[in-house]
Amino acid sequence: MLTEQDIAAIVEHMNADHADALLLYAQAFGGVPEAEHARMLGIEPGSLELEITGPHGRRRVRVTLPEQIAAPGDARRVLVAMVGEARRRLGGSEET
Fold first, then answer.
1. Per-residue pLDDT in tens (0 to 9) along the chain, 96 residues
2. 14 and 30 in contact (C-beta within 8 Å)?
Protein backbone atom coordinates (compact mmCIF):
# COMPACT_ATOMS: atom_id res chain seq x y z
CA MET A 1 0.00 0.00 0.00
CA LEU A 2 1.25 3.49 -0.82
CA THR A 3 2.04 5.53 2.27
CA GLU A 4 1.59 9.30 2.57
CA GLN A 5 5.38 9.59 2.26
CA ASP A 6 5.37 7.44 -0.90
CA ILE A 7 2.67 9.62 -2.45
CA ALA A 8 4.46 12.85 -1.56
CA ALA A 9 7.74 11.53 -3.00
CA ILE A 10 6.12 10.36 -6.24
CA VAL A 11 4.27 13.66 -6.72
CA GLU A 12 7.39 15.71 -5.99
CA HIS A 13 9.54 13.60 -8.32
CA MET A 14 7.04 13.66 -11.19
CA ASN A 15 6.54 17.42 -10.95
CA ALA A 16 10.27 18.14 -10.68
CA ASP A 17 11.58 15.71 -13.30
CA HIS A 18 8.79 14.53 -15.58
CA ALA A 19 6.61 17.47 -16.61
CA ASP A 20 6.71 16.16 -20.19
CA ALA A 21 5.21 12.83 -19.09
CA LEU A 22 2.49 14.56 -17.07
CA LEU A 23 1.51 16.57 -20.14
CA LEU A 24 1.33 13.39 -22.21
CA TYR A 25 -0.94 11.78 -19.59
CA ALA A 26 -3.28 14.79 -19.70
CA GLN A 27 -3.38 14.85 -23.48
CA ALA A 28 -3.67 11.10 -24.13
CA PHE A 29 -5.60 9.78 -21.12
CA GLY A 30 -7.21 12.85 -19.55
CA GLY A 31 -9.18 13.84 -22.60
CA VAL A 32 -7.44 17.22 -22.85
CA PRO A 33 -5.41 17.14 -26.09
CA GLU A 34 -5.10 20.94 -25.98
CA ALA A 35 -3.38 20.89 -22.57
CA GLU A 36 -0.23 23.02 -22.47
CA HIS A 37 1.00 22.22 -18.96
CA ALA A 38 0.22 19.56 -16.36
CA ARG A 39 1.14 19.17 -12.71
CA MET A 40 0.51 16.08 -10.57
CA LEU A 41 -1.62 16.73 -7.51
CA GLY A 42 -1.87 13.18 -6.22
CA ILE A 43 -1.75 9.48 -6.96
CA GLU A 44 -3.89 6.62 -5.66
CA PRO A 45 -3.81 2.89 -6.34
CA GLY A 46 -6.04 3.24 -9.42
CA SER A 47 -5.65 6.82 -10.61
CA LEU A 48 -3.68 10.02 -10.61
CA GLU A 49 -4.94 13.57 -10.37
CA LEU A 50 -3.53 16.31 -12.54
CA GLU A 51 -3.99 20.04 -12.67
CA ILE A 52 -3.85 21.06 -16.31
CA THR A 53 -3.51 24.45 -17.92
CA GLY A 54 -4.53 25.15 -21.48
CA PRO A 55 -6.26 27.69 -23.70
CA HIS A 56 -9.44 27.40 -21.61
CA GLY A 57 -7.77 28.00 -18.27
CA ARG A 58 -6.91 25.64 -15.45
CA ARG A 59 -8.75 22.55 -14.26
CA ARG A 60 -8.31 19.20 -12.55
CA VAL A 61 -8.33 15.92 -14.44
CA ARG A 62 -8.37 12.38 -13.05
CA VAL A 63 -6.52 9.78 -15.11
CA THR A 64 -7.30 6.11 -14.55
CA LEU A 65 -4.22 3.91 -14.29
CA PRO A 66 -4.19 0.75 -16.44
CA GLU A 67 -3.57 -1.33 -13.32
CA GLN A 68 -3.61 -0.88 -9.56
CA ILE A 69 -0.40 0.20 -7.85
CA ALA A 70 0.57 -0.74 -4.31
CA ALA A 71 4.18 0.42 -4.00
CA PRO A 72 6.52 3.05 -5.46
CA GLY A 73 8.07 0.44 -7.77
CA ASP A 74 4.62 -0.35 -9.16
CA ALA A 75 4.02 3.35 -9.76
CA ARG A 76 7.29 3.73 -11.63
CA ARG A 77 6.62 0.72 -13.86
CA VAL A 78 3.04 1.76 -14.66
CA LEU A 79 3.85 5.43 -15.24
CA VAL A 80 6.77 4.60 -17.55
CA ALA A 81 4.57 2.22 -19.57
CA MET A 82 1.91 4.92 -19.80
CA VAL A 83 4.37 7.33 -21.41
CA GLY A 84 4.97 4.89 -24.25
CA GLU A 85 1.25 4.30 -24.69
CA ALA A 86 0.52 8.04 -24.59
CA ARG A 87 3.11 8.66 -27.30
CA ARG A 88 1.60 5.91 -29.46
CA ARG A 89 -1.88 7.38 -29.03
CA LEU A 90 -0.67 10.87 -29.85
CA GLY A 91 1.28 9.69 -32.88
CA GLY A 92 4.78 10.27 -31.53
CA SER A 93 7.81 8.18 -30.69
CA GLU A 94 7.45 5.39 -28.14
CA GLU A 95 10.85 6.11 -26.58
CA THR A 96 10.78 7.09 -22.89
1. 899 999 999 999 999 999 999 999 999 999 999 999 999 999 999 999 999 999 999 999 999 999 999 999 999 999 999 999 999 999 976 554
2. no
Q: What is the largest CA-CA distance in the chain?
A: 37
CA distance 36 to 33: 9
Domains for the chain: give ranges and CATH numbers: 4-90 (3.20.180.10)
Interior/surface letters 3-26, b for 16+ CB within 10 angstroms, e for the rest? eeebbeebbeebeeebeebbbbbb
39: helix, coil or strand?
A: strand
The rounded distance, in Å, linking the Cα atoms of 35 and 53 is 6
What pTM does this model have? 0.92
